[in-house]
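Support reply, case 0932

Customer input (verbatim):
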Amino acid sequence: MNDPLQDPNFFRNPYATYARLRSAGPVKKLTTGSGGGRPSYLITGYAEAREAFVDPRLSKSTARFFAGQPSRRDLHPAVSQSILATDPPEHTRLRRLVAKAFTTGAVERLRPYIDEFVHGQLDGWEPGGHADIVADLAVPLPVAVICQMLGVPEADRPQVRLWSSDLFAAGQPQQIDAASHALAGYMTELIATKRDQPDDSLLHELIAVRDGTDQLSENELVSLAVILLVAGHETTTNLIGNAALALLQQPDAAARLREEPGALQTGLDELLRLDSPASIATFRYSTEALTLGGTEIPAGVPVLISPGAANRDPAQYSDPDQLDLDRDARGHLSFGHGIHRCLGAPLARAEAEAALLALFTRFPDLRLTVPAQNLEWRRTRLMRGLEALPVLL
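Our regenerated output:
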């Protein structure tokens, strides 16, 4: 059969495809491009996705899976062999070291900077004029914040933002590969600078962090710096854009957030559940045969866990296609689950809260300039994000 995850209709609205596939069972065998011609198994059920996230028989080691296979790509190892593509015990060690520096306190210290940046962006928006929420807010905010965290000098940030954007140039593998090398080279030099000129940045904390005699190697430092930038960019951009669109389509919900700003802390979980910025989680494959959701999965095949589908499983959430700010959606899987759950979740939430509150408070009559069905979505099955979100202020 044709790959349903590459159908143009899937990019516009993946949830109809997910519902159709789920109706035949929570785990579905597909023919996709994920594993070099091998079949893949897509998980659309909530219970099965949550179980798969913590199953040690599902490995994230892309290096082991693709070992011996020819590749035309030239991604820098800082991207291709990062913490996102490791299993325990290596993953456990790296995450333990990173978590010592990537704390809730670090995020709280950034809130004034986040608020200042958001309002600075919105100061340039003229009431009665037009803006693009994606290009003018959702894209620059997370890059600026992670640059601030890492201690990237102000003068270098425009170039770093360009490289970061190039890493997501869909259909342009050479551009992506070149950006990975440029970013890794830049971060290598920045780390050397931080060693000579210590400061209070996250990057310097990562240089100094250790657990007993264990500390991060030079390659690990470079990889973590690049991945923090990359991982914190795309998903947060999509979170802000998707959530803003949902609120634009539900004026009553937007009005409630203006009247009760505290409602966004719980409402954000519902917005994350409704339209997950990560439609399909990063790569996993089966190291041995297993049975999941009544489906037998052989060893050595890609297993695609879909938070986007799981978050709309009617067996877990009633009326899953509806936005309900009173729903207890804290169990959503948009940040993953288990040992690989997103370390940057608190930062993404802080950025989204600041952006959405400022946006809908300062511009209470905000509305779309085109019908929602005419909006363009990124043509990637992994991420769920808008190309643009044009609005009238």
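We compared this against your earlier run and they match. Two observations from our side: The chain has a mean pLDDT of 91. The chain has one domain: 4-392. Please reopen the case if you see a mismatch on your end.
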